[in-house]
Amino acid sequence: MHRRIIAPGALAAASVLLAIPASAASYTPGAPGIGDPYYPYYGNGGYDVSHYDLRLQYQPKTDELQGTATILAKTTQDLSRFDLDFLLDVSEVRVNGTQAAFATSGEHELVVTPKTPLPKGTPVTIVVRYSGVPSAKSAYGFTSWHRTPDGGVAANEPEAAWWWFPSNDHPTDKATYDVSVSVPDGTQAISNGTLQSTSSRLGWTRYNWRQNKPQATYLATLALGRFDITTGTSDGGVPVINAYSKDLGDNEGAARASVERTGEIVDWLSGYFGPYPFSSAGGYVPNTTTSYALETQTRVFYSPRQFANGANTSLVVHELAHQWYGDYVSVRGWKDIWVNEGFARYAQWLWSEHEGEGTAQELADYVYASHPADDAFWTIAPGDPGPDNQFAGAVYDRGALAIQALRNEIGDDAFFAVLKGWPKEHAYGNASVADFQRYAERVSGKPLAALFDTWLFQPEKPAAPSARALVKTTTTVAQPKSWKKIEATNSVHEH
Length: 495
Known about the structure:
single chain; 495 residues; five-stranded mixed beta sheet
């Protein structure tokens, strides 16, 4: 795991501090972190973003990126200065049309001091001009920019934005996006949402993408390279855009056989989770050396290695389930990761039922029996796993066990009402594990605190009766036919 948090140094030089007029003594700097205990310096305080407009130019031969980011926000306090999360080289910052002082701080902070302090509730337009080579930048010892033979890709969790645009990088500050990218003719630029237009001039082609629904910063993605792009519409009317690197080699057939089923799977998931919440769906498979997949909103990132052993629709189900559980409704804090990963894994169990390869109960029995009481698997609490275990297998498998325990406790009618109603309850917003518990109690009419505590928070193997139908520890359980396909997706959390 690469989650090493290093406290940034002083947030601005003395000269920057002196830029604040005496009359603004009551104004204070925005915090350098949004307040998430897992990642104290991710995100920022003092403002809330509503829209990112990114106008970029990229040269694949050198991995050079130039950009102008226009950020629309509103202050949430009387603000003397504020931070943006960013790594590339900045040449100019303007706040409400006026040049602002700026400096770098810590591992990934851009500190901006407006010429005039900003009262609480002020609409703010921030313009940042920048350039750099994303693959040459790192923070906390890692990079989330993946260089490919024909370009580059930004995709990672919980952070990816720093390498290509300045942002307030935390899921609680969602925004809409316009991403316009100019690349040499023959290279394509892929991002979230829908492709609004393309135009060519003097050997360069510009791609204009729009995400018209709120999106967390880590779910914004950019892929630059040579792709074969397919388009279509699902039976349910959802536009589908998929893309495949032109040099996937032996993995190409399996990748296409999996990802081209996106429309079918989106429609199927809609039956459990409600109407698809975005303007398009799809995925892309660039020629990266990574081994994970990521639920980048509307345009899922898949590593070629995920298809090295053949097609795997279960993986596609997992990432598309996140469009509801993770993207439509995002975590309130990173400790709430179970609300994303437990349900995406459980969707794979439902797909197994659909395919006749093992019921959710049979998969729960198998997982439960496969881990003896002294297995470290049970020491990880999916409801608050800690930053070092945020993407541990137990968050996925023990997390799905908790969902099956809930299903057994409240019955199928209430359970499937919860599955479908929850995304609508917090549409385009954020929610926590505690919020989910309260919602399940309201829908089912049952107290569920003990069940949630047992399956999500206790660092020990629950007694089988807590989940009613779950088998005893000593029982030998046959491996469901779908298990190997599900297990093959475990690397989705190896960010």
